[in-house]
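Need tokens for this chain, all 1021 residues.
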Amino acid sequence: MNKILTAFLIALGMIGVSAAQSKDLSRWVNPFIGTGGHGHTFPGATMPFGMVQLSPDTRIDNWDGSSGYHYSDDIIYGFSHTHLNGTGIPDYCDILFMPTVDSTREFGTATVYKSGTYKGFSSKFSHADERAEPGYYSVRLDDKMLLAELTATTRVGFHRYTFPASKMAGINLDLEWRDKRLGSELKVVGDRRVEGFRRSSSWAKDQTVYFVAEFSKAFKGHGSGSDKGSGAFFGFDTQAGEQILLKVAISNVSLEGARKNLAAELPGWDFEKVRADARAAWNKELSKIEVSGGTDAQTTTFYTALYHTMIQPNVFSDVDGQYRGMDGKVHSVWSPGFSRPLTRGKPPKGGTPSASEQYTVFSLWDTFRAAHPLYTIIDQKRTVDFINTFIRQYEQGGRLPVWELAANETDCMIGYHSVSVIADAMAKGIKGFDYEKAYAAAKHSAELDHFGLAGYKKRGYISMEDENESVSRTLEYAYDDWCIAQMAKILMTRESKSSKNASKASFDPKTGIASFPIDVEKTKYLREFEHYLNRARYFENLFDSKTGFFRPKKNGGFVEPFAPNEVTFGFTEGNSWQYSFFVPHDVTRLEQLMGGREKFVAKLDELFTTDQKLAGREQADLTGLIGQYAHGNEPSHHIAYLYNYAHQPWKTQKLVRQIMDEFYKNAPDGLIGNEDCGQMSAWYVLSAGGFYPVTPGDGVYAIGTPLFPEVTYRLENGKTFTIKAKNVSPANKYLLNAKLNGAPYKKAFITHEDITKGGVLEFAMIDTPVATSFTEFPVSLISVNTVSVPVITGDRSIRNASSVTMSTVTPDAKIYYTTDGSEPAAASTVFSAPFTIDRTTTVKAIAIDPKGNASKPVTANFVKPPNDWTVKVISPYSTQYTGGGDNAIVDGIRGTVNFASGEWQGVQGRTYEAVIDLQREMPITELGGSFLQVAGPWIWMPDRIEFETSSDGITFAKAAEIKPGFPQTEMTPTVREYRQKITPTRARYVRVRAFNIGKIPSWHPGAGGDPWIFVDEILVN
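Here are the structure tokens for all 1021 residues:
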């Protein structure tokens, strides 16, 4: 009877799933959302998580051309087979085909494109002649004479071109399009097939795409440009309305891989079937969440957002399971020696589609926040595949991915957030990957010494001297370390439950003492749990209790001047307003640091209401502003939900609804910022259902406000979880009360376990805030005793004397210090009041609380300048790059290759000019200066340096001219000192002028912009 009942229930579940899938949810997807503004999406044809993204290219480069397409353009240059979805850096757009009936132009002649010239074919187009839906795109070209249609399988792009009658019809293949071509090969096989590869360098420094292209009609001939490997033109005679089809399979492994992909996925020529199959595949994926009761605009925005979360990561393995690894070698997902999916079944035989895939395109700084937590609800199988991909990338490339693209580690953005994805999956009980291997890989990432980690481990925070973006790096490393601690805790718990560790006491009859075997593994996990939990508190070390903000430090103290609204190199795409709320793993401690819950709420309120404007560096990502909250960039995404932790959830409800209504729209510019590989959309998908993961890794979702009357999650375990919102409307955005499975629910959060069990969460909505709707609130807390490092404040350059003060945010902790360079300890001098130093001194300090817990030591070096010279800087330097003031160029403190370390003075787009007063006339025999080149962020050596001398400060005579001649194309950060002997002269004043190189050269991504000059020390001997 039980078996019959079970079978019946399963059948009912399958009927429900089938019914959901039979709905055409794809009709609600508008692929043009995000193609305008700064969304950086593309409208072309792709399968869910597919290897191929077949889409039109309308521009060759620049930030808003990152996806290859921008809605403001009116020229199409062709249809390429790989595209990035919403990134902030351009790449991909590989293997470009373009149909034409205008072959009168000679192949290879130049035509104008958006920002330069292009040697190839192009066509004007109108958006009125475009159509896009999941898995399909079409447009009319060549004065509307030619219809281009695109669809795709996972690994094959399928083109259908409808031509007019013409003797000059053709299809052009361009292997030079977009990024730098390192090599290519093109081989014509008969009169219907062409094969080859393209190797290129851009964001991914070394990417190879193999392709096999097959035409439905024999071409009458083909021609090529001056370089036979750069492309070819295939000519046809066509009748009116004749259709020529083109299948293009790609592989990152080999030509044979592309051939196999073509044979397995698209052996025939039925375009409409492939289009229908793609639509069905999308409906299957989109049916995982069903919304109802919203407006057409809301429904379209929702399903387009869900669609955007499913475009990437992308399948990277061929149908036979082969893929290119991070070591550049070819592997299989079933290769012995590398991580394979944990399964009871045997690996498939060669050529059989694998049960597991290798993936690529991991924008983890963005997607760890909401996209990957969304996958843990609706796509646990792919979550497992993603993590197994991470582990293989660690095994083959030496570390977990940061921002991986086509088996290249770009090292774009910060942190090691693959750790967050893994910890979140483990916390939610997702199986199918090796927990121990994943944990070992996570620890490896945390113990490296690059990107500021050496300083982070040494002093408990990253200083500006260590690495730029020091505040953001410190805060995000601390969160990642908390994730590692959670992994250790899970493994420790599993070890305790393991039968092999069931402790049995042994009794010694001589001593009468019972002993228990030591669980070595459990002890190791406990030790490491405590270690990473302590590191997770390092965020304290950059908190300034006087201002209530996290701030950059250098030389043991906070960087001055400071303004929380200023975008500086102390932060990653943000400022202190946004990053001062990034402690998702210990919101309780953040509340304490800010003075308690009431002051924390007041600070949150101020974030959303301040009339301060952005200042400092221009940062195009900071859009979608509400006060200083910036929804257009990811560091802000969790902040509106923090009111739940402070027991004021109605404020979360108000703001979340405002963000959904104002920043997501059914229009090309309907995204307020870069889509960023699904993160911008994942925020909307989860928020529209009424909850959001503030702290991935704890299995908890803070409740917000639902957008739709009903949202149903269809889970992989066959169950459903439904959110119902009675009377929800733009006005009724507040929660009156809640029920879970019919019982009153008083928690302002829901757990992942609650969701996966299935059930119904019901909200009663009302138009006024309700303070009593919940009585239990989410808690984010680290239960560990830590002591923050002292802050050492004083003038680093000592003209006469410097007063040194010290403080720590740890209550009741005492500070012990030394001034002789020795390491401080409990026996050292106790700091009780400011003290004065008048000579070059190294101050070291440590804080110790009443329980004997000690902080990391911190060091500050105070330097007596080698002279009493003063400086008047004539060219205004940036407030971000003051070097410490005018006198910084003669203070004897030298800068490093880290341009944001605080020692450099920087001027942009002008000549650097300053006058040094030597205070007295003296003999001068040599002049020079120290300069910096970091060409990536627009900093170059001067074109020339001129020195003049004067006795009265009015009349100057030229004394020296230096032409550095340093290569402008050198990208390695370099400090170079330039000196020149001069005819001995006596003078009191020295004027220096360092001339800029002019506009940024054309080969550089910042072409046409204004370059910087960075100067640290002017040398007068």
